[in-house]
Automatic annotation (TrEMBL):
<dbReference type="GO" id="GO:0031470">
    <property type="term" value="C:carboxysome"/>
</dbReference>
<dbReference type="InterPro" id="IPR011004">
    <property type="entry name" value="Trimer_LpxA-like_sf"/>
</dbReference>
<dbReference type="Pfam" id="PF00483">
    <property type="entry name" value="NTP_transferase"/>
</dbReference>
<dbReference type="Pfam" id="PF02879">
    <property type="entry name" value="PGM_PMM_II"/>
</dbReference>
<dbReference type="Pfam" id="PF25087">
    <property type="entry name" value="GMPPB_C"/>
</dbReference>
<dbReference type="GO" id="GO:0043886">
    <property type="term" value="F:structural constituent of carboxysome shell"/>
</dbReference>
<dbReference type="GO" id="GO:0005975">
    <property type="term" value="P:carbohydrate metabolic process"/>
</dbReference>
<dbReference type="InterPro" id="IPR005835">
    <property type="entry name" value="NTP_transferase_dom"/>
</dbReference>
<feature type="domain" description="Mannose-1-phosphate guanyltransferase C-terminal">
    <location>
        <begin position="265"/>
        <end position="366"/>
    </location>
</feature>
<dbReference type="InterPro" id="IPR005845">
    <property type="entry name" value="A-D-PHexomutase_a/b/a-II"/>
</dbReference>
<comment type="similarity">
    <text>Belongs to the transferase hexapeptide repeat family.</text>
</comment>
<feature type="domain" description="Alpha-D-phosphohexomutase alpha/beta/alpha">
    <location>
        <begin position="636"/>
        <end position="744"/>
    </location>
</feature>
<feature type="domain" description="Alpha-D-phosphohexomutase alpha/beta/alpha">
    <location>
        <begin position="383"/>
        <end position="513"/>
    </location>
</feature>
<dbReference type="InterPro" id="IPR005846">
    <property type="entry name" value="A-D-PHexomutase_a/b/a-III"/>
</dbReference>
<dbReference type="InterPro" id="IPR050486">
    <property type="entry name" value="Mannose-1P_guanyltransferase"/>
</dbReference>
<keyword id="KW-0413">Isomerase</keyword>
<dbReference type="GO" id="GO:0004615">
    <property type="term" value="F:phosphomannomutase activity"/>
</dbReference>
Length: 842
């Protein structure tokens, strides 16, 4: 039997350790990761290995040769032009794979029972068997769902937090029959999880998941790299050590000298030809390579030290990684999580701070204190993008220097000379961050149409008219007055896709930043007639005569947050009487209770003026809360139902788009008008994309206070919502109160509770496994439905916080209360069980 060892990875998240090494050749316990994999294959009788290479291929070929010194037969296939992907590289060696073969990643540490996996594959007569593993935090891996026979039913590659349906993940080890490769194109990039396995599912080929028992660690980032070695030293994984165990927990190579006064606290691994000086202290978990010198009184607490390094007298190196040939001079400090690339020099009494990374061949002067990465940027963050754009605390997380780099990273993903629209709210911090983003874009050779302080619906409308490649909008977060939100949208005004977010993150983290030459630096333009462009589009998609004939009186409260210049001007053209409140621009945002106070005030004004309606506009022109003629607020699920009812009354047999958690009142209304309801994931991008992609869509509703009218632009627009309301109330000759009274009576409640990140995936798997498949919907989170009614419960993991949201929905209020109580208890009991806490019920 042959194994294909996928060893082409460059290991960008392991830099600077992989600047001059391919990822599979990074040493673990002083042996390359790939050698541990080959030893595993040998233990299970697999001695013919085909290694697929791309990044620095000679390093592996020079080390392993023909494999005879390692007890295997090695063959190599190099992807010369470009990487072919996980499946494409295997397709590339198809002629060598004439019988059942194993595919295994060259950058993970494992002791899986491959013999048992192969027996399972043959017993099931499977075409493709995926070796799976239960993990605490599955968000970084491909999730797999199997039935009771272990046949694969569904999988999702690297899901968002709200899509973690299970904690069973794909480990990148597969047992395959040769005929499955016929589905793959020749010499083209393809991926097992994204391309081949979905094809096998669609064609009904038998595909099974073997849940392995044992150790598995994807050595994908620097923390995992250290933890895998600590685990191996403590016996959590079966590996072959490169040196004899001279004492329990102490492995030492040949010709190594340890001074009698040195203190070695096991477990520790020390390579060959090393010198350990007097009174040196080496703490448990330390791993020292070959030809390493440790000076007198040096203090080593769990560092990973590669071959040829020198650690000076009284130096302190703690839980860090030191690449080959690096020198740490006397009394220098290298703190936890720091990483020094090959051939660096750290001067006397210099200090390298926690988590700092230093690229190869850098020199740190004596006495220097280094708290930022040298040359390459800070990559400590897990990711940049959350559920909606990039957000963080103003001027702490989101600083000008961060924004410049983010703007450069975004610009680097676009073609040189492309145009980006930049807009913001009127806050000073937004102006500062916007200017920094613009500077970054210009440095990457991107032209900028600076719309300055502009409501985001206007920016989404005019960007396509300017032939922009995309846009950025900076504002304070609607629900967090201390946080800045940076949103990115594409050439159509839709929030950018996850794949584009990943490209920006890749450019940011890998420092793959384009720097334009002086003649090519971007320019900034300040376009005129932006509001006029929006106004033309606004009027085109409105029944102007109906609005003009309404003679409506409206009270608009801008809550000191959005420029009041746009909507009243538009409504005045249609002979509507718009009374504007609180339209001055305040540099400081309102607290929640202050906004509620203004809403109460708005109700009083509407009553006093006998206006047709009042509306409070928020989120820089995106969101609204209505007030009817009696001064009573209409918001949330009730507002969504009201808008859907009015749109489907005006255009029956149309389609509306709502997120998975919206009230079932939407379906009840759609049935009255022979309409169609499509539900999406909870994030705004999914709603925007569906509103544009699905046919016959008249409205997209956030389930809260935002509405999309796809014919206008793809984002939420409170201003157009107001004008459309006036139009429909006039045409339908009804009042808001009358429409509200005829809405379906549905009880819809939610509850948010804390859930650790490490438990989310297991919780979702538990819910999937403990409910009938026909009662489950897995659009986003886990939705448990009653097939005979519109009643349901949804457990939705939060994408950005260690929380889950529980929604209950039914026409029966008691059922909602009881279900919410039941699932709160279920979730809490599961969390407590996973964390070893005894649950105490209410």
């Amino acid at each position: 039997m042959r194994a294909v060892l996928m060893a082409g990875g460059s290991g960008t998240r392991l830099r600077p350790l992989t600047c001059d090494l391919p990822k599979p050749m990074v040493p673990l316990l002083n042996r390359p990761i790939a050698e541990h994999i080959i030893n595993l294959l040998k233990r299970h009788g697999i001695t013919e290995v085909v290694a697929t290479l791309h990044y620095l291929p000679d390093v592996m070929r020079d080390y392993f040769g023909d494999g005879s010194d390692f007890g295997v037969q090695m063959t190599y296939a190099v992807e010369e032009e470009q990487p072919l992907g996980t499946a494409g590289c295997v397709k590339n060696v198809e002629e060598l794979l004439t019988e059942t073969f194993l595919v295994i990643s060259g950058d993970s540490l494992t002791d899986f029972d491959l013999t048992a996996a192969l027996a399972f594959h043959r017993q099931k007569q499977s075409k493709a068997t995926l070796v799976l593993k239960h993990v605490p935090d599955p968000a970084a891996f491909g999730i797999v769902i199997t039935d009771e026979e272990q046949r694969i039913r569904r999988f999702l590659e690297k899901p968002s937090a709200s899509e973690t349906f299970s904690d069973t993940v794909n480990t990148g080890t597969y047992i395959l029959e040769p005929e499955v490769l016929k589905y793959l194109p020749v010499s083209e990039e393809s991926d097992f999880s994204k391309d081949l396995f979905p094809l096998l599912l669609r064609h009904g080929d038998p595909m099974y998941g073997f849940v392995a028992v044992g150790y598995w660690c994807d050595v994908g980032h620097l923390d995992a790299y250290r933890e895998a070695q600590y685990d191996a030293l403590h016996g959590k994984v079966k590996v072959d050590f490169a040196y004899p165990e001279v004492q329990p927990g102490l492995w030492v190579g040949e010709n190594t000298t340890i001074d009698p006064e040195a203190a070695i606290h096991k477990p520790v691994l020390i390579g060959s030809n090393c010198r350990i000086g007097p009174r040196a202290s080496i703490e448990p978990g330390s791993i020292i390579g070959d030809n390493v010198t440790i000076g007198a009184e040096a203090d080593l607490k769990r560092p990973i030290v590669w071959n040829g390094a020198i650690v000076g007298e009284q130096a302190h190196i703690w839980a860090c990684s030191i690449a080959r040939g690096t020198r740490i001079d006397r009394r220098a400090h290298v703190m936890e999580g720091a990483v020094l690339g090959a051939l660096c020099t750290v001067g006397e009494e210099a200090q390298i701070g926690q988590g700092v990374r230093v690229w190869p061949s850098k020199q740190i002067e004596s006495g220097a204190i280094l708290n930022i990465n040298l040359i390459w940027g800070n990559m400590a963050q897990r990711n940049l993008f959350g559920q909606q754009g990039v957000s963080g605390i103003a001027n702490i997380d989101i600083t000008p220097e961060f924004a410049v780099k983010l703007g450069t990273a975004y610009g680097s993903t676009l073609k040189p000379g492309a145009t980006v629209c930049a807009s913001r709210d009127q806050r000073s911090v937004s102006r500062m961050i916007s200017r920094a983003l613009i500077a970054g874009l210009m440095s990457a050779g991107i032209d900028v149409q600076n719309l300055e302080a502009t409501a985001i619906p206007i920016a989404r409308t005019v960007a396509p008219a300017m032939s922009a490649a995309g846009g950025i909008h900076v504002r304070l977060q609607p629900n967090r007055n201390d946080c800045v939100l940076i949103e990115f949208f594409d050439e159509n005004g839709i929030n950018i896709s996850k794949s584009k977010e990943k490209k920006i993150e890749g450019a940011y983290f890998k420092e793959d930043l384009r720097r334009a030459h002086i003649p090519d630096i971007g320019r900034v333009f300040y376009p005129a007639q932006v509001i006029e462009e929006y106004s033309r589009s606004f009027e085109t998609h409105l029944n102007v005569e109906a609005v003009r004939n309404s003679r409506s009186k409206i009270v608009i409260d801008y809550a000191y947050a959005v420029s009041g210049a746009v909507l009243p001007r538009l409504l005045a053209k249609f002979d509507c009487d718009a009374v504007v409140l609180n339209a001055s621009l305040s540099p400081t945002p309102l607290a929640g209770e202050e906004r509620e106070g203004l809403l109460t005030q708005l109700g009083h004004v509407v009553e006093a003026l006998r206006a047709n309606m009042g509306v409070q506009v928020a989120a820089n022109g995106e969101q609204l809360v209505l007030v009817d003629e009696a001064g009573i607020p209409i918001r949330g699920e009730q507002l969504t139902a009201l808008m859907v009812n009015m749109m489907l009354t005006a255009q029956p047999r149309s389609t509306v788009i709502v997120p998975v958690h919206a009230s079932s009142a939407i379906e009840a209304i759609a049935r009255r008008h022979d309409g169609k309801v499509i539900r999406t994931k909870a994030n705004p991008t999914a709603l925007m994309e569906a509103s544009q992609d699905e046919p016959n869509v008249v409205l997209g509703g956030s389930g809260d206070t935002g509405f999309i009218f796809p014919e206008l632009h793809p984002g939420y627009d409170a201003m157009f919502s107001i004008a459309k309301l006036i139009e429909m109330l006039t045409v339908q000759e009804r009042s808001l109160a009358e429409i509200r009274d005829e809405l379906p009576r549905v009880s819809h409640k939610s509850y948010t509770m804390r859930c650790p990140w490490s438990v989310k995936g297991a919780l979702m798997r538990h819910l999937v496994e403990t409910h009938l498949e026909e009662n489950l919907q897995l659009i986003d989170g886990v939705k448990i439905t009653d097939p005979l009614t519109d009643s349901w419960v949804l457990v939705l993991p939060d994408a950005g916080e260690p929380q889950v949201h529980i929604f209950a929905n039914s026409e029966d209020r008691d059922w909602v209360d009881e279900s919410l109580r039941e699932y709160r208890q279920r979730v809490q009991e599961f969390i407590d069980r996973e964390q070893g806490v005894e649950f105490v019920g209410n």
